[in-house]
Amino acid sequence: MNRNRIAQLAPGIALCAAIALAAMGLQRLEEHWTGRPWLEALVIAILLGTMMRTLWTPDLRWAPGIAFSAKTLLEIAVMLLGASISFQAVLDAGAALIVGIAAVVAVGICASYALCRWLGLPKRMAVLVACGNSICGNSAIAAVAPVIGAKPGDVASSIAFTAVLGVIVVLTLPLLVPLLGLSHSQYGVLAGLTVYAVPQVLAATVPVGLVSTQLGTLVKLLRVLMLGPVVVLLSVLVGRGASAPKPGLSLGRLVPWFIAGFLGLALLRSLGAIPDIVLQAVMPAATLLTVISMAALGLGVNLKALGQVGGRVTLAVTLSLLVLIAISLGLIRLLGVA
């Protein structure tokens, strides 16, 4: 990258970075006051970016850096996430549970996508909502967005509504223990399959008991691992759908570079080639890049367009979550979790 290109990108990237740092600072204050991050930094970054975009429209000076942050920095962040994945964790969980979690994710994505389309949501937003609900909320939406070429407004609205519902789930899911007569083990599996983020799983299970927390965290981590295969599959489908098949079509054209990097880093991590000390530096960097990219997405949000789809997105996310809970309860019964 030459100096002219750097100078062109610098203002927009600096603006997004400043918003990201403010969002991360607000998350820390939130944790200090409430003991847990009800709204994660990436959600706060979107909100701050959207507020700024409402009050001020960036001119051409800022546009290149904002676009670079929203796309390229997000792709780099997704790639770096592969360093935290160990394939051994999947093997240690047992075949039945792994297959069951994969089935819940697959059925959940298909059912959620169908609901979204039935409610009239655009295809790309339907994919975002489906993957966010069925895998890991905001992180899944952020990872899938660059693969399917989602619009900033679609990404921001999907994350915003998923984040709000995620907080509601944390507060209300424990009520199902007495209502449905769930054991601590059953509730742990249910929380792991339905709650969006790992910190939220802890918030939803700690009040119930240690067994629920341990099992919920394991199931949630296995569910997060499904993000890699889903993103790769989507990249292949998008690659095929972009144009008619051509002779000599290479894997590199079907699988984006950052997905290949994600899988490569996951393999290195599984082989023990990435030590913990390196991981401790890589993951904060991935988190920071993701928050910066979310700030960029917020700066590209048109609130008028967002308001037009708000009701439908809210209904789609809510119905999708209810379907996911029903599917998860079915798996618990099928596996005979006591």
Please provide a written account of the structure:
The chain is an all-alpha fold and 338 residues long. It has one domain (3-242, 249-335). 81% of the residues lie in helices and 0% in strands. It has helices at residues 3-34, 41-55, 63-81, 87-92, 95-118, 123-136, 138-148, 152-172, 176-180, 184-194, 198-205, 210-225, 227-242, 251-254, 257-270, 276-299, 303-335. Helix 1 (3-34) packs across helix 2. The longest helix is centred in the C-terminal third of the chain and has 33 residues, at 303-335. Residues 242-254 have low confidence and may be disordered.
Distance between the termini: 57 Å
Largest sheet: none
Shape: globular
Proportion in helices: over 70%
Average of per-residue pLDDT values? 82
Protein name: Sulfate exporter family transporter
Transmembrane segments: 38-56, 68-87, 93-115, 127-149, 155-177, 189-210, 222-242, 254-271, 277-301, 313-335
Keywords: Cell membrane, Membrane, Transmembrane, Transmembrane helix
Family: Belongs to the UPF0324 family.
